[in-house]
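job 3f2a | input accepted
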Amino acid sequence: MPRQKGFSLSEETKNKISNALKGKSKSLEHNKKVSDALKGKYMGANNSHWRGGLTTNKEHKRLRMKKYKAERRLKTKGLSIKIIQLVYEDNIKRYGTLTCYLCELPIDFGNDQLEHKTPLCRGGNHEYLNLGIACKKCNNRKYNKTEQEFRLSLLGNYQEKIR
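job 3f2a | predicted structure (163 res):
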């Protein structure tokens, strides 16, 4: 029932309400544990909500980028400069200019990417025969398909456009 203007509670009623609310509130010990947990004192690897403590969005992005770069270094670990140079030189010898091996169109400077014909996630490797130079557009469209799967998907898209 809403209180009316000018209406005040007696001390006895205030004490009853206060005691009733005390039973529902958490203990001081519980509040301290929650506070410490939010500060990262009690969270650990076993806790399902552990994220390394509280971080700002900017810190979180920086940490994600650091992890991503470390993973990329591991993926290119077996790749040598000599192999990369060979792939680029052979591409230029074959086509006369830097050309995408998927769409066979010349590539503008800066739009070229070293590409795995069989992706690493599908059992590919860093050997010379598994590498090619692709334009960004083709490389992004190919994603994690093998070269044969990519060419079949292009053929399927072409046939659908004809119909």
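job 3f2a | Residues 78-162 form a domain with the DNA Binding (I), subunit A fold (CATH 1.10.30).
job 3f2a | closed
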